[in-house]
Write a structure and sequence with these properties.
The complex is a heterodimer of chains A (533) and B (302).
Chain A lengths: L3 E3 L18 H5 L4 H29 L10 H36 L7 H20 L25 H29 L12 H32 L13 H35 L6 H14 L15 H13 L1 H15 L8 H24 L1 H7 L3 H31 L5 H28 L13 H30 L35 E2 L1
Antiparallel strand pairs in A: 1-2
Helix pairs in contact in A: 2-3, 2-4, 2-15, 3-5, 3-7, 3-13, 4-5, 5-6, 6-7, 6-8, 7-10, 7-11, 7-13, 8-10, 10-11, 11-13, 11-14, 13-14, 14-15
Chain B lengths: L2 H11 L22 H34 L15 H29 L7 E8 L2 E6 L4 E5 L3 H6 L22 E4 L4 E7 L4 E5 L4 E5 L5 E5 L5 E6 L12 E7 L1 H19 L6 H8 L7 H11 L1
Parallel strand pairs in B: 1-5, 4-10
Antiparallel strand pairs in B: 1-2, 2-3, 5-8, 6-7, 9-10
The chains are: A mainly alpha (533), B alpha+beta (302).
Chain lengths: 533, 302
């Protein structure tokens, strides 16, 4: 890993300030500074996390007991659909982009992102996208209700919200593509002298790979939903057998996007915990090169496994075999990562500050999600698991205690660097324990429900599923409420608190250029590039 | 032997053909089911589950040991190593071996699942929003199957009916599919509007019903009883309310049931001369029908 040779005048006020940084609302609306845009992304994603979370609460409240008590089944379907779209495209992805904006220039020793104005545009496009998506819930015919995968022919039955949802996806996709271009250009061109690719911090590495995935697949998704749009409004029949099309074609195109998409959400979290575990183990990351190559292998494999989401669509035997075997292969590089994180802790000197706690929770619970993923890679058994709560449990394990806990670990790791204040360790540890306990109460029983035969996306269920659903809902309410604590901790850390040192985690002596600048990080950093040995 | 299977066996022994396996609360594992395939799938599931439990126990064990043993208060001086080629090779190769060991039996079962040859009865299943249509190909019997009235009344918003007082709440239909025991039944799946998926957990198999296309699965139930499942592919507002119920009866009972159904269908068909080809088709043994024939009948239905 890199070490800092010298940082000179990196943080002093600089002539660039002369033309005046905008203040007040202009600072945010016209933001071009990577730190301000990072903050905007992070706050936006937190807002979306609560909106999407509120929808999840509606879902779990309806499922608290059998029978329909609270919502209409049609509205229930809107909630499952929009909850997922908001969490995937509005909460998890923008959170990782926000972290990238804040941290990549600091980690590679760049003064800012390479394309600051495009950076501003990508953020505000996202706001437009989600305004449109949320508005779509209130138009005649109601919001999109065909599931976040938007499978035709069902999606064609959507009312006036269909074009709104599709344009929202187009805007969010354009935003992601621009964000990715910015990240790639920044990493490729603005690294400090001496920082070769294999000296880059792991978070930078995982984001570089993520950005390539995004550029590769977002246009594919945009294409798929555009074909839905023309099927609905312009008489094409891409996905309708009546005109020679095929509904399953959509699924192939969608999952060619959709599978890399799940790695787009998890790879930055891999990067974050790869920073945090070595810091609080006081020991270098085990197998740095292997970590980079494992990440790249996972990214490559993500392009050739998509149809494991479609085993029940009736593929030829050879297709089922191929996708079963290629999917199983992913266990190898993923295993390497888990083993390397464990080996990093081995014979270290571990302390358990909130970022480390969330990283450890990530390590355990993501592994559970990974193992259930291995189970469903076996096509014959997936015929039973498919479209049940077992799948719901699996992907929530990799996305909530996986991606979301990774993001929270990152926030707790770097928050003092952003605000200049330490947050309350006691409250953060409360947040950790409440989240970790409730996330398991919420999602673990869903494995049982799925195996016992409960299909996903149903608003009401047979009475033998009542017990585990009630437990799951109690976990959901607990988990949802615990997140208010997260918002409070961030808010109070922004407002004040004990002064954070430059290194923030002095006792752990974190490595990396971001810890060489003062806390809070000044508006402009690395005007003169640091030299990395 | 699982609880489910025991219940089924007891039910069969008593000749209470309409009593299905008890649907108990707190059920937390995959059902063993009543077909050869479902038992094989259950075996695969248990194998991979235990492999995963063993892997998790080993990995979590090392993690917990590290957390306890190498905490800062106990181990203040960290080691500095960051590579160990031997260890890295071992933990790359061992997973590959485990994967191969899992892939072989999985591939064998997969091949068996996809072998729909030599079926003795072919039933075309068509999904609609929100009911199933069953067509006994070549036997002149077809009917719709929808959520039964009691469940349907109870599931209305704030119906005032406690679902726990309704027998087989949401898992009961007006006209169940009836099939003979120990018979290889081929199910041809299609849909009339949007995607659906036909799923009976005890048969170990689900597959999508896709408008304009025909999918096929097969099952051969060896324990008489009533088996319940649900539509497993989101199909709109009432997706949660289109159960699948299959009654597996003895061959004699099935023959009697079929004859009754045919008799009920015949008088209505008699006056219409157009029904003649259908009557001829009824005499053709099911297993001589080809996929092409089935496709043609789908096209006709649409």
């Amino acid at each position: 890993m890199s070490s800092v040779h010298s940082v000179s005048a990196a943080t002093a006020d600089h002539a660039h300030e002369d033309h005046g940084a905008p203040v007040g609302w202009r600072r945010w609306v016209f933001a071009t500074n990577h730190k301000d845009i990072g903050t905007l992304y992070l706050l936006f994603s937190l807002l979306m996390f609560f909106i999407g979370g509120a929808m999840a609460m509606i879902i779990r409240a309806e499922l608290f007991q059998p029978g329909l008590q609270l919502v209409d089944p049609g509205f229930f379907n809107m909630m499952t659909t929009v909850h997922a779209l908001i969490m995937v495209f509005g909460a998890v992805m923008p959170a990782t982009v926000g972290l990238a904006n804040w941290m990549l220039p600091l980690q590679v020793g760049a003064p800012d992102m390479a394309l600051p104005r495009m950076n501003n545009f990508s953020f505000w496009l996202l706001v437009a996208a989600f305004t449109l998506l949320i508005m779509s819930l209130f138009v005649p015919g109601g919001g999109p209700a065909a599931g976040w995968t938007l499978y035709p022919p069902l999606v064609i039955q959507t009312g006036n919200s269909l074009p709104m949802a599709i344009f929202a996806i187009h805007l969010a996709g354009a935003s992601s593509i621009m964000g990715s271009i910015n990240i790639i250009v920044t990493i490729m061109n603005l690294r400090a002298p001496g920082m070769s690719l294999l000296k880059m911090p792991l978070f930078t590495w995982t984001w570089l790979i993520t950005a390539y995935l995004l550029i590769a697949v977002m246009p594919v998704f945009a294409g798929a939903v555009t074909m839905v749009l023309t099927d609905h409004f312009f008489g094409t029949t891409f996905f309708s057998a009546t005109g020679g099309g095929d509904p399953v074609l959509y699924q192939h195109v969608f999952w060619f996007f959709g599978h890399p998409e799940v790695y787009i959400m998890i790879l930055p979290a891999f990067g974050i915990v790869s920073e945090i575990i070595p810091t609080f183990s006081r020991k270098p990351l085990f197998g740095y090169d292997a970590m980079v190559f494992a990440t790249a292998s996972i990214a490559f494999l993500s392009f050739i496994v998509w149809a494991h989401h479609m085993f029940t669509t009736g593929m030829p035997l050879a297709g089922e075999m191929f996708f079963m075997l290629s999917t199983m292969l992913i266990a190898v590089p993923t295993g390497v990562k888990v083993f390397n994180w464990t080996a990093t802790m081995w014979r270290g000197s571990l302390s358990f500050e909130p970022p480390m706690l969330f990283s450890l929770s990530f390590l355990f619970l993501f592994t559970i999600g990974g193992l259930s993923g291995l189970m469903m890679s076996l096509a014959p058994v997936d015929f039973q698991y498919h479209d049940t709560y077992f799948i719901v449990a699996h992907f929530h394990y990799v996305l909530v205690p996986g991606a979301v806990f990774g993001i929270m670990a990152g926030v707790y790791y770097w928050l003092p660097k952003w605000t200049g204040h330490m947050y309350s360790m006691t409250l953060a540890k409360w947040h950790f324990w409440l989240s970790t306990i409730f996330v398991n109460v919420l999602f673990f029983p869903q494995h049982f429900l799925g195996l016992a035969g409960m299909p996903r996306r149903i608003p009401d269920y047979a009475t033998q599923f009542a017990e585990f659903n009630m437990i799951s809902s109690i976990g959901a309410f607990g988990f949802g409420l615990s997140q208010l604590l997260f918002a409070y901790i961030i808010w109070s850390c922004v407002r004040g608190g004990e002064k954070a040192s430059d290194k923030v985690w002095d006792s752990a002596d974190p490595k990396g250029l971001e810890w060489t600048v003062p806390s809070p990080a000044p508006h402009h950093t690395f005007d003169v590039p640091p030299v990395v040995k | 032997m699982s609880k489910t299977l025991k219940y089924s066996a007891v039910a069969a022994a008593l000749g209470t053909l309409h009593a299905g396996p008890a649907l108990a609360a707190w059920e937390m594992n995959l059902r063993v089911g009543v077909t050869e395939l479902s038992r094989e799938i259950h075996g695969l599931h248990m194998m991979v589950l235990w492999i995963c439990v063993a892997i998790a126990a080993a990995v979590f064990g090392v993690m917990i040991y590290s957390i306890v043993r190498f905490r800062r208060s106990n181990h203040p001086e960290p080691a500095t190593f960051s590579h160990n080629t031997k260890a890295e090779i071992i933990w790359t190769v061992i997973p590959v071996i485990i994967l191969v060991a899992m892939a072989i039996p999985a591939a064998e079962t997969l091949i068996k699942i996809e072998d729909t040859r030599n079926s003795e009865l072919t039933i075309k299943v068509t999904g609609y929003q929100w009911k199933w249509h069953y067509d006994y190909i070549g036997h002149g019997v077809n009917f719709f199957s929808a959520l039964d009235k009691v469940s349907n009344a109870a599931r209305q918003p704030n119906s005032g009916v406690n679902p726990k007082d309704v027998e087989n709440y949401l898992l009961a239909v007006d006209n169940p599919l009836v099939v003979p025991v120990d018979t290889k039944v081929r199910v041809l799946l299609t849909a009339g509007d949007v995607l659906h998926a036909w799923w009976v957990p005890d048969f170990g198999m689900k597959k999508d019903a896709i408008p304009g296309f025909v999918n096929e699965i097969w099952f051969k139930a060896d324990v008489p009883g009533t088996y319940r499942g649900q539509c497993a592919e989101l199909c709109g507002r009432d997706h949660g309310f289109m159960p699948v119920v299959v009654e597996v009866r003895s061959k004699e009972d099935y023959a009697a049931w079929l004859a009754k159904k045919q008799a009920a269908a015949a008088p209505a068909a008699d006056p219409a001369p157009a029904a003649a080809p259908a009557a001829t088709a009824a005499n053709v043994p099911a297993n001589t029908l080809t996929i092409d024939g089935a496709t043609a009948s789908v096209a006709k239905a649409e």
